[in-house]
Amino acid sequence: MINNKEKYTAFIKAEAKRLGFISCGISKAGFLEEEAPRLEAWLKAKHNGQMQYMENHFDKRLDPTLLVDDAKSVISLLLNYYPEQTQTDNTFKISKYAYGQDYHFVIKEKLKELLHSIQAEIGEVGGRAFVDSAPVLDKAWAAKSGLGWIGKNSNLLSKQVGSFFFIAELIVDLELEYDHAVTDHCGKCTACIDACPTQAIIQPYVVDGSKCISYFTIELKDNLPMEMKGKFDEWAFGCDICQDVCPWNRFSKPHNEPLFNPHPDLLSLTKKDWEEITEDTFRAVFKNSAVKRTKFEGLKRNIDFLKL
């Protein structure tokens, strides 16, 4: 006889698939013991640079029961964003995740629908949706739920789909069947470490966030440091180098989420177009994009730095 936990788990995974998520894994909510000393050491070493928010809510980051009353399960979900076409060669580049509409809004809607479906099917279930904007260690939870392993570039990697996906969570007060972690398949490969132009991967599995091109082009609000001149490899917003060189990304397949399709003009922008970009063009091309995070002035700053 199928018990309720099994029935509910199967329903949630089927719903996640219907909503377009490529994977769904579930873990028992509780304190992340292994991550606690790692996070503490990472913050102590100031690898978060100016990302002050990483120091806030230390306890909540490690314990979802402090975020959701009576939390029992963490439902981790992956949504593919790998594009069918990428930017032309010899242009200034933006991370593939920012080609389409801002993922926060796209995924939040899907998570809301998933929670409503759970409540309609099962009854009163309390929960909260999280998309990388709250103190949740999403990669740790996804790994714990068997959706992949954390690679040497500190991204979640999957044998089936690589790493070009977003991670999101629903934390609920419902007991479910739990998945198990998978083994690490990085082996002796150091492709990501060798390829990073700013040497941000200071040792396998440890990234100094304050040296990462994504940090410089998105998070850093000051002037870009001159010692980094010539090291950005034409990245104007974010950076995909450590993912592009990862052998597991040979298995990336194009997403089927229309909202992640790029603005028609984006892929054909030349270096000259980027250099001459106006605020109006910026608003039109990146209307609902994550690129808006850096604002027009920030993007101009990055492009000017690349021209130096």
UniProtKB/TrEMBL annotation:
The active site is at D132. It comes from the Bacteria. It comes from Flavobacterium suzhouense. One of its GO terms (molecular function) is epoxyqueuosine reductase activity. Gene3D superfamilies: 3.30.70.20. Keywords: 4Fe-4S, Cobalamin, Cobalt, Cytoplasm, Iron, Iron-sulfur, Metal-binding, Oxidoreductase, Queuosine biosynthesis, tRNA processing. [4Fe-4S] cluster 1 binds at C186, C189, C192, C246. Pathway: tRNA modification; tRNA-queuosine biosynthesis. This is Epoxyqueuosine reductase. Its EC number is 1.17.99.6. Belongs to the QueG family. TRNA binds at K221. NCBIfam families: tRNA epoxyqueuosine(34) reductase QueG (TIGR00276). Its cofactor is cob(II)alamin; [4Fe-4S] cluster. Cob(II)alamin binds at R61, D132, N153, L156, I167, S214, C239, D240. It is an enzyme of class 1 (oxidoreductase). [4Fe-4S] cluster 2 binds at C196, C212, C239, C242. Monomer. It holds the Pfam family QueG_DUF1730. It catalyses: epoxyqueuosine(34) in tRNA + AH2 = queuosine(34) in tRNA + A + H2O. Catalyzes the conversion of epoxyqueuosine (oQ) to queuosine (Q), which is a hypermodified base found in the wobble positions of tRNA(Asp), tRNA(Asn), tRNA(His) and tRNA(Tyr). Binds 2 [4Fe-4S] clusters per monomer. It is found in: Cytoplasm. The keyword 4Fe-4S applies. Residues 174-206 form the 4Fe-4S ferredoxin-type domain.
